C-alpha cells in the first residue's frame, strides 16, 4: 500500500478525515484527553485524542504510548493557529504498529558525542530533521542551477590512480595489484569532460585523510565541481557567485520553517541572495589579517582562523583571488603579470564560516604544466592521460568545487560540520 496523506500536505485536507502513519514522539495524558506529538517524516503535528472521541481500548493504548512507538492515526484535520504547522488532528482511532521499549534518546539534554553514537536515531529529532531538509534543498538548488545552464552531469570516479589536492590527505586502498586512492576531487576528470561537453559538472562524495579535529573538516564530504571550456577566472567567479546566490534564494524560499526552527537570523542570507559579493586579492586579504594583529606573512596559507578574520571583514561572501603559486596545486594557471601568483579563487562565507568554494583557471600550456608536475615531485606517467587534454586541443578553462557540508553549516549557522550530513565521517567516527 502506498501511503497517500502526509503531514506536509495537511493544508489540502482541512476539515477532512485522513490516515497518517508515523511515530509518537511524546504523549501527554490528562484524564480525559491525550496529546500525542506525532511525526511522519514530512513534518510534525499534534494529535488530540479525547476519551469520548476514540474507542476506550485506543485511549488506554494512547495513554501508555512510549516514545518512538510507531502508530497509525485516523482523524480529522482542524486548523490550529497556535500550532507551529497550523493544524492539529482530532483522532477517531489510533492503531499501534510497533511498541518501542527504552528509546535511548530521552527528551532531556544529551552531549553531542552521545548523540553521535545514536546518530541513526538522532536524525529523527526536529533539529536534525530541519538541517538535513535544508541540505536536501541546497543539493536541489545546485542541480537546478547547473542543469538549467547547459551543463552536463558527468560522474567522476571514486577510485583514482593519482592525487589532485596533495599526497598528505590521500586515502590509499589496495586495488588488486595496484594502489588506488579515494578521490579527493573530480576536477581532473571534469577538465577532460569539459573538452567533450563544453560545460560539465560532477556532484558526489570526495575524501581527504585529514586527521584534524576542526569544526570544518570531514574525511568524507560532498563536492559539486563544474568545469567550463573557454572560461577564464572572471567567468569562474561569476559562475560561482551565481551558484551561491541561487542556493541562498532557494533556501530562503523553500526552508522558512526549518530556518525558523534552527533560530537562523536570515539577514546575511538575504544579502547573499541579492547583492554582489566582495572581491579582494590574496595580497589585500593578508593586509586585513596583519592589521588584526595575527602573525601572518605574505606567502603563508590561510588557516581557519585567518579565513574567519577576512570573512568577518565583510557582511557578505568574499571572493579572494590570485594566491601565491607556492602554496597551491600544480594545475593552477600562472598569472601572466606576476609569475609568483596563480589565477585561482576561494569564496569565504560571511559570519566567520570560512572557505566554501575553491577553484580557478587551469594551466592550459603543456610545457608549463609538465614543469609544475615535475617541480611538485609528481609522476608524469600517472598524469599522462590528464596531459592529453593539453596535447589535443588545449583551451583556456576554469572551474571550482563547492563543499556541500561547509555550505550547509553556514546556511544553518551550525558550530560544526558534523551535523550537516546524516552519517558524517570524521577522523574518530566511522560508526554508525
Ligand atoms: O579547495 P579544495 O581543496 O578544492 C578542490 O578540491 C578543487 N580541486 C575543486 C575544483 O576546482 N574543482 O576543496 C573545495 C571545497 C572547499 O572549499 C570546501 O568547501 C570543501 O571542498 N572541503 C571540505 N569540506 C569538508 N571537509 C573537508 N576536509 C574539506 N576539504 C575541502
Ligand atoms: Mg581550498
Automatic annotation (TrEMBL):
The UniProt entry, under InterPro entries, shows: Aa-tRNA-synt_II, aa-tRNA-synth_II, aa-tRNA-synth_II/BPL/LPL, Asn-tRNA-ligase, Asp/Asn-tRNA-synth_IIb, NA-bd_OB-fold, NA-bd_OB_tRNA
Compartments, as annotated in UniProt: Cytoplasm
EC number assigned by the record: 6.1.1.22
Q: Name one GO molecular function term.
A: ATP binding
| Annotated keywords | Aminoacyl-tRNA synthetase, ATP-binding, Cytoplasm, Ligase, Nucleotide-binding, Protein biosynthesis
Q: Which reaction does it catalyse?
A: tRNA(Asn) + L-asparagine + ATP = L-asparaginyl-tRNA(Asn) + AMP + diphosphate + H(+)
Main location class? cytoplasm
What are the GO cellular component annotations?
A: cytoplasm
Give the Pfam families listed for this entry.
tRNA-synt_2, tRNA_anti-codon
Residues forming the Aminoacyl-transfer RNA synthetases class-II family profile domain are 132-432
Q: Which GO terms describe its biological process?
A: asparaginyl-tRNA aminoacylation
Top EC class of this enzyme: ligase
Summarize the subunit comment.
Homodimer.
Family assignment from sequence similarity: Belongs to the class-II aminoacyl-tRNA synthetase family.
Q: Which PANTHER family match?
A: ASPARAGINE--TRNA LIGASE, MITOCHONDRIAL-RELATED, ASPARTYL/LYSYL-TRNA SYNTHETASE
Any idea what this protein is called?
Answer: Asparagine--tRNA ligase
Q: Which gene produces this protein?
A: asnS
